[in-house]
Design a protein that fits this description.
9 helices; two-stranded antiparallel ribbon; mainly alpha; single chain; 5% strand; 2 strands
């Protein structure tokens, strides 16, 4: 066991909360426009996994270039803008869009400029709902399944073969600017769950919610149990 049981339980509980909040946000925006007239991508549902996967590859390449040249300020600015964007979408399911925008700015400030572990994790609970609300409507069961299979294959290559994802993770760790849950404990120890491990199961659950309704709630439970194991 990599971490003690209490820390593991906290991390897994936060994962489940993020899934449930995310599904609420997806459901809220199912037939509503996104705040500030933000437009969703114009992708075909059955083939959208191709465009989304290419976007992920492009974002990874940009991140690697920034890491290679140690463009720290640009990296932080990129993260700041991204966090404000998705948090605003997510929080607009709970607040007026202007209040949501203000809270998103505060959350991004305490994640990037003045890191605070409590606000970091609190904002992480909402971030992935914003992402899912943007992409779920342009995905089908087939396309999200294909996307996850592509991500699994890519992840295996990036971690075990090229190892560029490990280098990227270490760079983010040194800057203390990254996507994912973070539970510090003991002396210089931390339990981390990456953003992709939260976001992609949520997107799958969101697509099932969109197509089959409330039965989708069984997915976060099963995924949380799998994560525990």
């Amino acid at each position: 066991m990599k971490h003690n049981f209490r820390i593991m339980l906290i991390l897994i509980s936060l994962f489940l909360v993020a899934q449930l909040i995310g599904l609420y946000v997806v459901d809220f925006f199912m037939e509503k426009d996104l705040p500030y007239n933000i437009e969703r991508p114009k992708f075909e549902k059955q083939t959208s996994f191709v465009q989304i996967f290419l976007i992920i590859i492009l974002v990874t390449v940009i991140a690697l270039v920034l890491a290679k040249f140690k463009a720290i300020k640009l990296w932080k600015l990129w993260f700041f803008i991204s966090i404000v964007f998705v948090l605003t979408v997510s929080l607009s399911a709970f607040f007026n869009e202007y209040i949501a925008g203000f809270l998103a700015l505060v959350g991004a400030f305490f994640k990037i400029v003045k890191p605070n572990v409590i606000i970091h994790n609190l904002s992480e609970l909402f971030i992935y709902g914003g992402l899912a609300a943007i992409f779920v409507p342009v995905l089908s069961i087939f396309s999200i399944s294909m996307l996850i299979l592509l991500i699994i294959g890519y992840d295996m290559i990036a971690v075990w073969k090229t190892k560029h994802m490990i280098k990227l993770a270490k760079f983010q760790g040194r800057l203390k600017v990254f996507s994912g849950l973070l539970i510090p404990y003991g002396k210089d120890k931390s339990a981390i769950l990456g953003g992709g491990d939260i976001g992609f199961p949520l997107m799958f659950s969101g697509v099932v919610l969109n197509e089959f309704g409330i039965i989708s709630l069984i997915i976060p439970v099963i995924v949380t149990l799998s994560l525990f194991l």
